[in-house]
Amino acid sequence: MRTEVIRVATGSRETVHDITGDCDTFLSRAGAGDGLLNIFVPHATAGIALIELGSGSEVDLLDAMRALLPKDDRWTHSHGSLGHGRSHVMPAIVPPHATIPVVEGKMALGTWQSVAVVDLNVDNVVRKVRLSFMDSG
């Protein structure tokens, strides 16, 4: 297994941040053939989504998260910025991991799928993402 941790600057606002290129670069550097790519964000307030990017889906996803998880004072977990508790609930909806098949060194994503870090937590501006390639051989 080959593994690497990348740092992703998500900034101080809610975001859906594309890391597809980072995953491709990692697989190339790892000399990947056939196997599995696991993507894991070791944070209690971020997730990994496989989603179409660049067509407005990022805005739609953030709007859906705001509707499901309002940014207000209802949350028991209440330290940090207003609505911080919702960021701790979000990984139950957008999980902190994804596993993608890799064929001949390339992610076997669907035509419109990309890999993104979803981050509602405005208190943390940089996230770590662990990329691990497991060879099928």
From TrEMBL:
UniProt-listed InterPro entries: UPF0047_YjbQ-like (IPR001602), YjbQ-like_sf (IPR035917)
Domain of life: Bacteria
Family of this protein: Belongs to the UPF0047 family.
Name the record gives this protein: Secondary thiamine-phosphate synthase enzyme
Species the sequence originates in: Actinoallomurus bryophytorum
